[in-house]
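INFO  loader      accepted 1 record
INFO  loader      residues=195
INFO  predictor   begin
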Amino acid sequence: MNKNELKYFFIKDFLNDSDVHNRVCSDILLFEDSPAAIIEEDGTTHFHPTKKNHIRNNCLDETVIDKMLSPSIRTIKNIIRPLVIENGLAKPMIRGLQNFSNPDSIRWHKDVVPEDMYIHSSKRFVTFFVVSESQIHSDFMVSLNPTSVELWNIGFKLELETNMLIGHNQFLGHEYNKLRDSKINIFSFLWYDTV
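INFO  predictor   done
INFO  writer      dumping tokens
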């Protein structure tokens, strides 16, 4: 791996259309109460009786997952897709979605992929869309390791704001640091390259 393979970004005031932003915010809250689902390769869907707000997709037919998403979640997915392409994925597909509602601090980590789903780190990308009705008292870091932002100037550490989009490929990891209580939703899309 060389430094050129490290892809990451953050965008403040991501959704500039307030109507789309408000619909996405409402639908994220609805998604939070939805049962967790696994979509198999053949498109068969299984719902988990006790888990919520998570979809894992193993199907290459994107219409299957799109049927499970609200129109505004599909819209934001389609707005994010070109950014993922700009950052190295030729034909990105959603592997998973999850909403983190008022999460506790999460230490620095890289997302783990089971061996049966292994895809090279350059072919996996994660995006986080941040939503809050009030000021957020939390930091978010994207980096090669827990100290690379300060030592090597790789990645970033920033204070979260509502309507912010963060993304990085899987050569990098991330950390969420909750400084004080605040109501926040972090909606995550896990992308992978089908090429």
